[in-house]
Amino acid sequence: MNLYLTDTLPYLFSSCSVFDIVVYSIMLLATFAAAWKAPGWIRTIGKISLMMCFFCFLINLQHFIIDYDIKRPTIMSIGSQSREFDNLLRTTPEIRNMIVNDFKPLMLGDIARIFSSIFLGGFTYLVNSITCIIRLPRL
Fold this sequence. Notes:
Layout: H1 2-14, H2 18-37, H3 42-71, H4 83-91, H5 93-135
Helix pairs in contact: 1-5, 2-3, 2-5, 3-5
């Protein structure tokens, strides 16, 4: 379990899209600029970064759905194929396993992009919340 986690985390963070990295970098820079010049704006920037996290998640989910339709082999949709082909896949698990094993690595990058967007958005919001706690004046 631990070996799998240590192998997956670097791949998860290296699969971010350029758009996500730019958005979250701008949100972090805006948080630090607001903490320096206008501490009252930190909560607003935090809410914007949370909305951008949701927006980036939806964009990456849309890319996943489009890539799934493009990369999916036609033999994965068993219900739409002929009965003979259905029976062939049911009786020969070697062919089905080969298809599944070739299809999963194709989709791993798209799934990792979705999760990395969520992790980066959560990290940005966490930094914003900590900055808000540190920087806002207390009454």
